[in-house]
């Protein structure tokens, strides 16, 4: 309950940034939830606490990712949005541990659906809606086989989400892309950044999650600030989509 209250309070802070009472409540609830979560992890998984550990871990992950700008010191720079990938991968480690401990439970059956969904996404036949991200010629970009494969897989993932926006689960993106793609992103590779920008466009276009309010816009702005000028034309579609979404809000 503390995790849910803290998460909700942080969400409200995005719309009331100068409310000190809300700020204090958000930190108090979330700190208590994290402290309790740490105690449970130290005590170990069992059939009675596995569901609670997974739920709290998921909320803390969403909290640390969505509210990253509120949790990090403001040094005036643009931080690469790689925290999403790191947080979600750590959460998946906890989920897999819970499945091992509670293999016959309803929780395990629900969590097993994540692996099936990942497989279905990668195996689904999709069109080349985002192939322009692969076709744009950048003589300064990497051309090794591993990088090209990472680009291709990630762009295929975007196309898969785009074909099923109404029911898509776009946050699986963070645990489905290859480690090489994350490395490219961490190195500020322009093509990897452009792909991520279009991912956040899809998040904005897909079914709305109340707790994501403002995150796609913020992360897209970071991507655009980090992209070199020669890549700006590639982002025209995404820029237009964000502008249309804002005007219709």
What does this structure look like?
The protein has two domains: 112 residues, no CATH class; 126 residues, no CATH class. It is 68% helix and 0% strand. The mean pLDDT is 81. It is globular, with a radius of gyration of 19 Å. By secondary structure, the chain is mostly helical. Helix 5 crosses helix 6 and helix 11 packs parallel to helix 13. The chain starts with a helix and ends with a helix. The protein is built from 13 helices and no strands.
In short:
This protein has 249 residues and is an all-alpha fold. The chain has helices at residues 2-13, 20-43, 50-66, 68-71, 83-101, 106-123, 132-135, 145-162, 173-176, 179-186, 190-205, 215-226, 236-248.
What is the CA-atom radius of gyration, in angstroms? 19 Å
Low-confidence stretches: none
Shape: globular
β-sheet strand percentage: under 5%
Biggest sheet overview: none
The arrangement of helices and strands along the chain is HHHHHHHHHHHHH
Number of helices: 13
How many extended strands? 0
Derived structural class: mainly alpha
Count of folded domains: 2
């Amino acid at each position: 309950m503390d995790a849910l209250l803290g998460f909700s309070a942080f969400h409200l802070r995005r719309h009331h940034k100068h409310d000190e009472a809300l700020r204090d409540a958000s930190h108090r609830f979330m700190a208590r939830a994290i402290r309790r979560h740490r105690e449970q992890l130290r005590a170990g998984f069992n059939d009675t606490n596995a569901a609670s550990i997974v739920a709290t871990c998921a909320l803390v992950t969403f909290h640390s990712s969505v509210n990253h700008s509120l949790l990090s010191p403001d040094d005036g720079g643009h931080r690469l949005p790689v925290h999403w990938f790191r947080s979600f991968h750590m959460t998946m480690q906890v989920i897999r541990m819970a499945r091992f401990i509670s293999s016959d439970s309803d929780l395990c059956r629900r969590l097993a659906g994540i692996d099936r969904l990942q497989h279905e996404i990668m195996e689904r036949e999709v069109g080349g809606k985002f192939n322009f991200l692969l076709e744009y010629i950048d003589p300064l970009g990497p051309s090794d086989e591993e990088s090209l494969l990472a680009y291709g897989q990630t762009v295929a993932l975007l196309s898969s989400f785009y074909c099923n926006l109404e029911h898509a689960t776009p946050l699986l993106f963070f645990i489905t892309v290859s480690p090489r793609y994350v490395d490219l992103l961490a190195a500020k590779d322009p093509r990897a950044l452009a792909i991520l920008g279009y991912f956040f466009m899809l998040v904005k276009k897909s079914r709305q999650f109340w707790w994501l309010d403002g995150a796609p816009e913020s992360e897209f702005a970071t991507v655009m600030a980090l992209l070199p000028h020669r890549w700006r034309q590639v982002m025209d579609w995404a820029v237009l989509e964000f502008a249309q979404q804002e005007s219709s809000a």
